[in-house]
Amino acid sequence: MKNSILFLLVLVSASAYSQNTEYKVASYLTEGNKAPNTHYIGEAWLNAIIHDDTELGYNITKATFKANSTLDWHKHSSAQVLIIVDGEAYYQERGKEAVILKTGDVIKCEKDTEHWHSSTKFNDVTYLALYGGGQPTTWTEVVTQEYYDEVAKKLKTTD
User: Fold this and answer.
1) Is 149 strand, coil or helix?
2) Whole-angstrom Cα distance, residue 129 to residue 9?
3) Is residue 44 predicted with pLDDT exceeding 50?
4) 3-class state of residue 57 by DSSP
5) Rounded to an integer, what distance in angstroms lies between the CA atom of residue 73 and that of residue 112?
6) What is the pLDDT of residue 105?
7) Structure confidence by residue, pLDDT tens digits, 68-82
8) Which band of pLDDT confidence, cut at 50, 70 and 90, is reported for residue 120?
9) Residues 6 or more apart from 43 whose CB is under 8 A from it?
10) For residues 37-64, average pLDDT
11) Which residue would you say has higher pLDDT here, 31 or 124?
């Protein structure tokens, strides 16, 4: 028992010294900040993991949307990749049918392609969004609750 306690003390001490404060370390595990209800319906949290890094040239944002929440139609001046970390999402590009994305799915949206994405009607979603720095998102049209409900009905999501 004494050896186990000694081992734990050494391990804790070593880990305390292994962290170097010269590094900027971010975590995608934190929920982030509640987003203002500007271009979406419902509840959303954003965690800007890497943002406006001119050397890297792209952003990584973790977004969490509660069930029955949606972004408006929008487009980006660079391609965007969405990695579904947990839950289920609706995704639709202008002129195409909406689809359901699930945990583990990865989808790429080409630059200047109008699209929207959201949680599903009964499931939260958390995703990582990778997209170019530079120009901000261009918001094009509101996704109404009625339109969202039609998509949910067509895709027949359940809780």
Assistant:
1) helix
2) 40
3) yes
4) coil
5) 12
6) 98
7) 999 999 999 999 999
8) very high
9) 34, 65, 66, 69
10) 88
11) 124
| Distance between CA atoms of residues 126 and 64, nearest Å | 4
Asked if residue 17 has pLDDT above 70, the reply is: no
Give the residue carrying structure tokens 């995704």: 91
- Residue 70 per-residue DSSP state: E
Max Cα–Cα distance, the chain, nearest Å = 68
SS3 percent helix, strand, coil of the chain, rounded to 5, is 20, 40, 45
Q: For residues 40 and 70, is the Cβ–Cβ distance under 8 A?
A: yes
Q: Residue 93: which of 103, 104, 107 has the closest Cα?
A: 107
DSSP-based three-state secondary structure for 3: helix
In one letter, which amino acid is 140? Answer: T
Sequence letter at residue 11: L
Phi, psi of 149 (to 5 degrees): -60, -35
Cα–Cα distances (Å) from 18 to 8, 15, 58, in that order, read 15, 5, 29
